[in-house]
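S1.2 Input.
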Amino acid sequence: MIPFEQVVSLTLSDKDKTHGQIQLFISLFDINQFLRLRSLKLIRIESNHLKIFLDYTIHSSLISLSIDSQTLNIGKNPVLTLLSSTIEHYTLQKLDLNIWPKNMKEFQWPVNCTI
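S1.3 Output.
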């Protein structure tokens, strides 16, 4: 197994063929142990799992973040506020955000964002 501190890129998916992968990862690993992680891709992630990863990204050195949450409705949810704080994080250089259009209407883009 690769040591946590050597992992620089991580892709987790809850698509049909990989359903449950994100929950399994969370149950087996502490994302905070991945100290050198620079790229994180989350596919079909549920809002309760997304919150765990967004909490991590605020304190990380991530450069690239990709979130696909088209399968859920995160509107009127504190996850949107947390997402805004994450985007404002100064190390983030690339963001791929795929969420429901109605969530985008409720989302506030951070004023100090450099992306």
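S1.4 Remarks. Strands lie at 9-13, 39-43, 64-68, 94-98.
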